Structure formats: C-alpha cells, structure tokens
C-alpha cells in the first residue's frame, strides 16, 4: 500500500497518511508523496479545499519515523530506494510536505484521529482549520529526546496559541488532550471519532461552495499580512481586494443573489 492515499471528490482533495501499523509515522516515501500532492493540489483549479487525516483510529501521525527518516538525515543510514534518494536530493521536499514556508493558498483542513505528536503536530500547524476526535491528543515530545521540533513549531506555535501555553508544550514535551487543544484555540472542533470526517467534509464543502478566487485570496492576504505593521498590511489588503473585485466571480456572486439562484463560480 502507498504511504499516502490521494483522492479527489467534489472539488475536495483527501490526503490520508497511510502507515497505520507504525502510527502513520513520516518516512521518506510519505514526505516525498505529500510534497508532490500539495504541488498537484495547488495547480489543480478543480480542487477548492483539502482534508488531511491519518489511516486507522489510533493516530493521526506519530511524527518522524525514527528508524527510517532521522537516520537518513544524520547519515547513519544510506539511501536505499528512490524515496530516500529523492528526499536527499532535495531537502526542501520535507518543508513542502509539512506546509512549512510554502505559499499554497487553498484551504487545508486537518482531521485528527488519535494522537498527533512531533512532526504530526507540526503538519497540522500548517493547516487552516482543525477538527479533532475526542480521543485525539497533541504534543511536541522532541525535547524529551534532546532534539527540537524544528519543522515549523518554533516559529508557528506561539503565533497560534497563547505564548505561555505554547512554551509549556514546547519545553515539557507533555501531551494535551482534545478538549484542552480546543480550549486554547489549537483546534476548531472536537467531535466523536465516528463523526470526524463528516465534520471535516462539512467544513470543506462549505468552503468549496464559496467563490474559489475569493477563498484563495483571503488566505493569501492573511499569510502576507501576518506580522506586518498595519500600514503595510492594509496596502496588501487593498491590492488583493482590487484584484478580486475585477474578477468574473465578483460579478457573478451579487448577480446570483439578486436572481435568487445558485452562483456559477469559475475561479477567475
């Protein structure tokens, strides 16, 4: 079975981390496949939202495969197959896979089933909306093994939740449960496990019905405005607003409302 399952249905892409026997840990094949999937999603105008989840009911992802991935990067293990060679040839694939530093402006929803730790948690920090099953738990446990969560968490986590909570997660390595993750704003919803994909689908379908250009430009604007002074941010906002208002969709939306019909958006 492939390490990543990639499906497309009704303008929504579905990515499933597919190594349940090892808690969906991230090996070279999964990282290379994720990077390729994000690139394809970004370039496919038919896709308007993405859901990423883990196979099985135990884990979203346990993070890096300590037997396959880390030894490859440290040189302890030599490249053995095409996935190893591709990853070593282009280290940026790991960043792309974990949505780190990229500029993909289509919304991504993570559906967290079970525990989500280390690189798994760093991946969801790159997503826009997060739904957790009641049995989900979250943690960055690298510090316990004398290493650091440097795949996005040191830069992103303290921007997404209160500083002191981010530091507690980073410095103790302790896990938090789904309700605590919701309380501090790390996830949007907590649902019964059997309702997890249903809730993620509901969010994705709602987004997919909206103007696709407007959706992408909202995410682009938020990304580009992040951390900038208001004066700079408002200029970016104005630039993007002008672009959207010139689009066919911006004419179609109000027209469909007045004509009491479903809009026919084209993403341009």
**In percent, how much strand structure appears in the residues?**
15-25%
Q: What percent of the residues sit in helical stretches (DSSP H or I)?
A: 40-55%
SSE order, as H and E? EEHEEHHHEEHEEHHEHEHHHH
Radius of gyration, rounded?
19 Å
Tally of extended strands? 10
Q: End-to-end span in angstroms? A: 38 Å
Record the strand order, biggest sheet. 1-2-3-5-7-10
Q: Globular, elongated, flat, extended or rod-shaped: what is the shape? A: globular
Counting H and I runs of at least 4 residues, what is the number of helices? 12
Overall residue-averaged pLDDT value: 90
Structural category: alpha/beta
- As residue ranges, the low-confidence spans are none
**Sheet with the most strands?**
6 strands, mixed
Can you describe this structure?
The chain is α/β, with parallel strands linked by helices. The chain has helices at residues 28-43, 69-74, 82-89, 92-97, 119-124, 153-160, 163-172, 178-183, 196-209, 212-225, 230-245, 248-258; strands spanning 4-9, 12-17, 49-54, 59-61, 108-112, 115-117, 129-133, 137-139, 176-177, 189-191. A six-stranded mixed β-sheet has the order 1-2-3-5-7-10, sandwiched between helices. It has a four-stranded mixed β-sheet with strand order 4-6-8-9. Strand 2, helix 1 (28-43) and strand 3 (49-54) form a beta-alpha-beta unit. Helix 1 packs across helix 3, helix 6 (153-160) packs antiparallel against helix 7 (163-172) and helix 10 packs antiparallel against helix 11 (230-245). 39% of the residues are buried. The model has no long low-confidence stretch (mean pLDDT 90).
